[in-house]
Amino acid sequence: MMKNSDKVNICMVGTGYVGLVSGTCLAEIGHRVVCVDSDEKKINLLKKGIMPIYEEGLKALVHKNVKKKKLFFAKSIKEGLHHKGHRAEAVFIAVGTPPRPDGSADLSAIEKVAEEVSINMSDYTVIIEKSTVPVETCHRIEKTMTRFNKKHIPFDVTSNPEFLREGSAVSDFLNPDRVVAGVPSKQAEFLFKKIYKPMMKHSQVIITDVKSAELIKHASNSFLATKISFINAVANVCEKTGANIDDVAKGMGSDKRIGASFLNAGIGFGGFCFPKDLEAFYWLSSQKGYDFKLLKNVQDINEDQKMWIVKKIEDELWNLKGKTVALLGLAFKPNTDDMRFAPSIDIVKALKKLGAKIKAYDPISMSNAKEVIKGIEYTKNPYQCVKNADCVCLITEWDEFKKLDFKKVLTLVKHPILIDGRNLYNAAKMRKMGFTYKSLGRP
Ligand code: UDX
User: Fold this and answer.
1) Domain that holds residue 226
2) For ligand 1, what atom is nearest to the CA of residue 266?
3) Is beta strand 82-83 parallel, antiparallel or unpaired with respect to 86-87?
4) Which of 135, 144, 134, 80 is nearest to 111 (CA)?
5) Is the confidence at residue 384, as pLDDT, over 80?
6) Could you tell me if the CB of 269 is within 6 A of ligand 1?
7) In the chain, how many domains are there?
8) Which of 252, 275, 303 is the last residue of a domain?
9) Is 238 one of the catalytic residues?
10) 13 and 94 in contact (C-beta within 8 Å)?
11) Atom of ligand 1 at shortest distance to CA of 169?
């Protein structure tokens, strides 16, 4: 049990993936958290216990902490800052920073939050910026707040980039490899350590200056994206030379300096972080006068990767006009309903252009998919999806697809052609069963 003196009153602004998960987990480790969102509909749903996103374990944790009166929801920053007589000492900013057409991040939501916090705070407050933002955003928040801070109330702006992944967000937040804190003062550092104290037993806290913390997030995500594009490029070379990417990745990944994770070749990365962060990091570097060409290459390889599967389908079926392609999975990765920047969006677009008829099934993301992918047939289960298909493609490596009854699949498809966009299945086994099986960089 946390001592009362260790409890911090927190206001979490933004209830997207990062905000809702972080706010809930901060309540779980003992703090009093009020989650605020300007989207009234979302707050009304949350007050009724309905989650606006799917994330494993989140719903139960929200219900538990609401019941324990540690987690609350409010519609305005003013209410969040002074909730039922509790003044928020820390205000986390976790609002959206969508990309603009030129690749830069749209930071207007952050500016609005800075303004409102400044107008409504009543004593020393630490603002903790959690959204992924370009370097110097904290400095801009500070400038904005100073402008609106007519009563000259002391405050600090800090950076605390979040590294949680969708699909494992709750456990990532509660068991991070590291917590990064960019702080401008000892007072802010003290509060920071108080907030994260329950996690400091098993995770290291890295204290830096504010700009370095901001850059750590950009650099980390871009590096991981680079690792994926690198292994995808190697997989293409494997394909051309007859080497096996599984063995190559294993051989590379067992070197501790390289590490085994993020070496799974496939149809490329998607999601709201990697594509957007890469673009924003490139834009930021260019603005500062450095042409970070490597990041452009990483993006280009990723775009080509999505089309790899389209070329494979064409190789097998020749003309796609009127032919039926079944897509197993639509989300950008398993265990999430998130369709933002999912490779499936571009793959469907390309297949439709070539005249293919598309059937699709995803265990969780179909209602979100229907918003962004129109003109395809959504099916109720994987077997309905593959029925009469000329070709079946694995797009997302959901557990459900690992356990498919392939004997049944063989009886349903028009032609037993299986293209594996995630190198999920055993090639020899699939071929033995009678599939024409294609995967990436595996002989
Ligand atoms: C990522 C970062 O991992 C996380 O630290 C940050 O906070 C947000 O961005 P997320 O986008 O949720 O998290 O998913 P992640 O598990 O990192 O996967 C991103 C994409 O890369 C997915 O499309 C996934 O399929 C792809 N990927 C990942 C690969 O293609 N190969 C791999 O080896 C790993």
Assistant:
1) 217-303
2) 30
3) antiparallel
4) 144
5) yes
6) yes
7) 3
8) 303
9) no
10) yes
11) 12
Instruction: Please work out whether the CB of residue 224 comes within 6 Å of at least one atom of ligand 1.
Output: yes
Closest CA to 333 of 132, 178, 169: 169
Extract the tokens encoding 427. Answer: 């090639």
Q: What's the token pair of residue 10?
A: 């927190």
Pocket test for ligand 1, best of 222, 227, 273 (most atoms within 8 A of CB): 273
Tell me how far the alpha carbon of residue 240 is from its chain's centroid.
32
Distance in angstroms (rounded) separating the CA atoms of residues 350 and 344: 10
Of the residues 303, 327, 346, the one at which a domain ends: 303
CA of 400 to the centre of ligand 1 (A): 20
pLDDT digits over 123-137, tens only? 999 999 998 788 889
**Helix residue spans in 125-209 (DSSP H):** 137-148, 169-174, 186-196
**pLDDT tens for each residue of 153-194:** 999 999 999 999 988 999 999 999 999 999 999 999 999 999
Residues 311 and 412 in one domain: yes
Establish how many alpha carbons lie within 13 A of residue 314's alpha carbon, considering only the half-sphere containing its beta carbon: 13
Residue type, 238: C
Cα 97 to the chain's mean position, in Å?
13
* Cβ atoms < 10 Å from Cβ of 95: 24
State the pLDDT at residue 321.
96
407 CB neighbour count, 10 Å cutoff:
9
